[in-house]
Design a protein that fits this description.
By secondary structure, this protein is an alpha/beta fold. The chain contains 8 helices and 9 strands. The strands form 3 sheets. A 5-stranded mixed sheet has the order 3-2-1-4-5, sandwiched between helices. The chain has a two-stranded antiparallel ribbon with strand order 6-7. It has a two-stranded antiparallel sheet with strand order 8-9.
């Protein structure tokens, strides 16, 4: 918020709207609620998402589900009669999702499904002591072997989705959440800013609170809520200390490392 021209009350309201929304909020809706332009609301949303990243978080451990999500619409019918490309042959953005069983999640946009890109992302996201569960993707088989961690797979092509406790359904579900948020809220998530949208979904997931509820009849069920709003705000604002945002020539913005001096203009 350094050198911002917006009233502090606008920032507080924007933070409240983003943090308390269940699936995110579009810049069009935010601009109408705050009484600002859509461009201002867009920049506010991305500034808040920048505070939601988990770059300094501890690597995931224990049982970690891993999945590679191709984010975008299903292949459309081609007029020339040729078969539409699917999966690895498409130009859809790739998102590597890792979620610790019954705990935190982390996700990264990766340039491709090549082994070196997957390896670089997993090195930051998952501890070597973890046990990975995934589908039987050959890239996962090759890369995870180099980490020395345990690895169990299910074969989706053979209609095997669960084998005992081995599955990647939670990671698959997070991929579906990203797809629903894209379709129903943001509509378009450019490659340039995609990681910030993913960070918001991850922040919301990591603020979930699970508790066990026992009914009067003695039936047990798990209830998922969110941590208190005050705790969510503390978790959000902590990474903001020392960060500075500057506009770019194409009307976007970049986040400067806190170690760099402030440059006017």
């Amino acid at each position: 918020m350094h050198a911002t021209k917006l009233p502090f009350s606008i920032w507080v309201q924007a933070i409240y709207l983003v943090v308390t929304s269940s699936k995110g909020i579009s810049s069009v809706v935010m601009s109408r609620l705050l009484g600002v332009t859509q461009a201002t609301a867009w920049r506010l949303g991305h500034a808040i998402r920048t505070m939601m990243d988990d770059r300094d978080g501890a690597p995931l451990s224990g049982i970690v589900e891993i999945d590679l999500k191709y984010l975008g619409d299903a292949p459309k019918h081609r007029r020339d009669g040729q078969k539409a490309k699917r999966g690895k042959e498409t130009l859809k953005p790739r998102v590597l999702i890792a979620v610790q069983r019954d705990d935190r999640m982390r996700a990264r946009v990766v340039p491709s499904e090549k082994a070196e890109d997957i390896r670089a992302a997993l090195t930051d996201m998952v501890a070597d002591s973890a046990t990975a569960y995934s589908d039987k993707d050959q890239t996962f088989l090759n890369v995870i072997k180099t980490f020395g961690m345990g690895h169990e797979t299910v074969v989706h092509s053979a209609k095997e989705f669960v084998r005992g406790e081995v599955h990647s359904n939670t990671a698959d579900g997070i991929g579906s959440m990203l797809e629903r948020a894209r379709i129903g809220v943001w509509h378009r998530m450019s490659q340039q800013h995609l990681q910030r949208y993913i960070d918001e979904v991850g922040f919301r997931w990591n603020c979930r609170l699970k508790r066990e509820h026992i009914s009067k009849s003695g039936r047990r069920r798990r209830v998922i809520t969110t941590i208190p709003l005050a705790d969510m705000l503390l978790r959000l604002l902590k990474p903001a200390i020392g960060r500075q945002i500057r506009r770019t020539e194409n009307f976007g913005f970049i986040v400067l490392p806190s170690s760099l001096p402030v440059v006017a203009g």
